[in-house]
């Protein structure tokens, strides 16, 4: 049994921010010529006077957002993740993060699902970069429901926020009653054999992987970590304590992202073996979403396989020690 | 001792010193020139005390800073976040000490605090930090960014109905080599941002630049006329001014405040290091500590004989 498909986060993005803006005249949307892709165009249709087209000039766009924020407005900045994070990174650092300005960096096209674009548009180190930046809140919603809640939350939050949104429809993890709690991780499955920690749209695939493992007698404990910074260290420690063996899974590089954050937290607070699944220090390439998930070991089946073999070698190691 | 008095400023009902009136009188011009001189003196003192900081760029900008803060801009030093104030962004943030001098003399903070410049815990950071010092409208220091933030402020003022707000952004001529400046230059006319006034401190030097047949074997950041041609081509209204002639500076800034549907750029032709004879026109005074002797000569050039405590003769 696999989780059902939900709506595409980008659809939710356009609608939710437009809804918020209907009740809050401070909200403005900035686009760098890709609103028809990111669905920021929904905002243009509903609030044309507050849709600020900045052209294909992302560094300037982030700087304009900073200026807007000083006048009391709440700018949502939208383009593809690659062009919202790394290209204008110095603008984010100097004009947004350092002064702590109230800018919402909410780009779409995160991770592998970028519409067959290849390495330039596949950015797999955005979470590492943003969470390393002092003062930058970093949130990776799991599905359309959580994306909606996170966007609503971030409009009310005062300060810079990075929200990692995905282009294509992904699996639905949460039901309509779900309430996002900033800075809190969520146990989405209980188990005692292995702790799987995931974030973003990888979490539904990890839940599916846990089902596959259960069919083979392995009960995985699954923790979803939407807020990468600030990190819910107590929840991670508790989840690690449940099984004593942690595997992190992310649609992102294993260096410095969720896996890095979890390893840092556990080595300080509860030394535990942490294995990190995700992109192993590589750039992406063009292929269908499904093919890319297979290639990088992030499909539910591949995650289950890898967890099983990790557990297998773990018990061999344990026996060798006896 | 440094006088802590901010000096008296004739303030109009809207918070601007004598805003919106006819051409400046000769006495008013003389007063502004004295402000500019004091700004230069405080720059030299602060940089000498810190044994760090920039000199050439702050000195070239001093006259424009005086005209802005003591005449053109509508600001309230006792209410630095007044929502209807005019904004100033020092995009060439390395000239911070010049802006600090203008703010201190205008009454934003005590002039004595200038001597904390660059030291631990100071509100006067090497580059402007808006989270530390009230009166700063943007944090800057990485070149090329201030003008983008200026667009954001001008757009934000318009969207929030504060249509009286004017946004001034000062850039360096070397800074105009940054691509972001031209991204911003492309966007501003799209929104007909005629409350946005960029000022390029055209002192014909950058930090180091290209070698060639120029002063000290360095070339200016742009060939003559290039800045005017570029800004014009991007759809801006372009004014040129002698940035050290106070009547001309006041006149051009007041004309720039009368919008015509286009953003305005003032190319302010200046001399890097202006006011200190041995610094003028030399790229290596961009940032360089002064010897005690150089400090005394600089102060003397600015009409301030150094008191004994600052290393001069009794
Ligand atoms: C992005 C960036 N690159 C380099 C520097 C280092 N830097 C500081 S000032 C300067 C030269 C600036 O020249 P110009 O804009 O002409 O300023 P001015 O002559 O008025 O000092 C440089 C290269 C910087 N602050 N920011
Ligand atoms: Mg210069």
SSE order and pairing:
The complex is a heterodimer of chains A (322) and B (314).
Chain A: E1 5-8, H1 9-23, E2 27-31, H2 35-38, H3 41-46, E3 51-53, H4 58-70, E4 74-78, H5 81-85, H6 89-97, E5 104-105, H7 126-132, E6 137-139, H8 144-156, E7 161-163, E8 169-171, E9 186-189, E10 194-198, H9 202-215, E11 220-224, E12 227-229, H10 233-243, E13 245-253, H11 258-269, E14 273-279, H12 289-295, H13 300-321
Parallel strand pairs in A: 2-3, 2-4, 4-5, 5-7, 6-7, 10-11, 10-13, 13-14
Antiparallel strand pairs in A: 1-8, 6-12, 9-11
Chain B: H1 26-50, H2 56-72, E1 87-90, H3 96-106, H4 146-159, E2 167-172, H5 179-190, E3 196-202, H6 226-233, E4 237-242, H7 246-256, E5 264-269, H8 292-301
Parallel strand pairs in B: 1-2, 2-3, 3-5, 4-5
Helix pairs in contact in B: 1-2, 1-3, 1-8, 2-3, 2-7
Stated plainly, the CATH topology of chain B is called Rossmann fold
Strand order of the largest sheet of chain B: 1-2-3-5-4
CATH class of the largest domain in chain A: Alpha Beta
CATH architecture term of chain B: 3-Layer(aba) Sandwich
Query: CATH superfamily name of the largest domain in chain A?
Result: Thiamin diphosphate (ThDP)-binding fold, Pyr/PP domains
Query: Can you tell me the residue ranges of chain B where pLDDT is under 50 for at least 5 consecutive residues?
Result: 1-13
Q: SSE string of chain A, helix = H, strand = E?
A: EHEHHEHEHHEHEHEEEEHEEHEHEHH
Order of helices and strands of chain B: HHEHHEHEHEHEH
Name of the CATH architecture of the largest domain in chain A: 3-Layer(aba) Sandwich
Distance between the termini of chain B: 14 Å
Report the biggest beta sheet of chain A as strand number plus sense, adding barrel if it closes. Answer: 7 strands, mixed
Distance between the termini of chain A: 38 Å
How many E-type strands of chain A? 14
CATH level-1 class of chain B: Alpha Beta
User: Could you tell me the strand content of chain A as a percent range?
Assistant: 15-25%
